[in-house]
What we know:
Elements: H1 41-48, H2 50-55, H3 59-64, H4 76-96, E1 106-107, H5 109-122, H6 130-135, E2 139-140, E3 152-153, H7 161-177, H8 179-193, H9 197-218, H10 221-224, H11 227-234, E4 252-253, H12 272-281, H13 287-296, H14 302-313, H15 317-324, H16 327-367, H17 394-406
Parallel strand pairs: 1-4
Antiparallel strand pairs: 2-3
Amino acid sequence: MEAGESTEETxxxxxxxxxQVSEEYGFLLPDPLRxxxxxxxxxxxxxxxxxxxxxxxxxxxxxHQMPQLSTWHLQGREELHLAHLVLSFITMGYLxxxxxxxxxxxxxxxxxxxxxEVSQALGLPPILSHTDFVLANWRKxxxxxxxxxxxxxxxxxxxxxxxxxxxxxxxxxVEKAAVPGIKxxxxxxxxxxxxxxxxxxxALQELAEAIRDMSKAxxxxxxxxxxxxxxxxxxxxxxxxxxxxxxxxxxxYEGVSDEPMAYSGGSAAQSTILHAFDELLGIRHSKxxxxxxxxxRDYMPPxxxxxxxxxxxxxxxxxxxxxxxxxxxxxxxxxxxSALADFRSYHITIVTKYITVAAAKAKARxxxxxxxxxxxxxxxxxxxxxxxxxxxxxxxxxxSIRDTTREGTIxx
Length: 412
């Protein structure tokens, strides 16, 4: 469908609340629940002890003793999201407890069936995704305090200690920094429909500023996450069973399907933010990158996916700016493109440090027996050395989407 064809299908103003997007928190789940109702005590008990159970290799035996619980007592979106968070973390721990050489082929019924049912209710896949890991996995230490890293903690954790906490919370701060940009999308689309160039110019300036603030937030990764711990300890628990050599056949969800199913692991590409910005700015990625990004949309909550689609069907911002012949609008549009390309370049810098360089150092440590007492005494993971946890060939993908972002610039 051509952009602009379906404006009559777009009830305007494009209300964020229609898409479960918060005016204050954006795509983050506002004030997520921290405890499930009493019948789900066995899940919560295991979930709160995950780092210890995994590192002591006791999680699988604990899961095998877990009662088969019905999901009927779960009520409302908040309880479902917490259940999905808890079951996804337990699943990742269960799968990767023994590292990439000790995977299992079957997720036991008492975990697989409720996880599948909760996933179906939320419209999410039965695997840990960005929604669980970041959007629904935060709490304020002081409820009246600010949304700043010193006042934040995760609800459920995995091995990795302070680096794991830092990885989740810095990513959360990137999501929070995007909120003015999400609001700017709504303002921009409204301004195009109302031919209000002044409001459109202001919205584009706010969008560019929000993207720059996202880059600033991402830079805090260096302060809170140790690359050696991220690579050797944390990363495997974000890995999925699609396009992963360590689990080439996928996973059987016992009691759900006799055939194995394959799902991608957690990935930054599952964040709705950049999909929304790309759609607004009319950025067209390569066929291969687009296919991967569109597949990642299946890992977003359905209302967030619908928000991205709504932007896609709105009138074309780029065409509007081009046909306006307004130099100020062109400049503001290009500032957004430039900020987004810079953000993607910086993401490449982070990935280089936390995956490529960290992998080389881990290999070197493993090759030297005198150095095998690092963050992970076991052999460093290698199945996804050149791939993202979502299964993409990470550098070719990241460079491709950065370059196609730059190509979205309007030339004078």
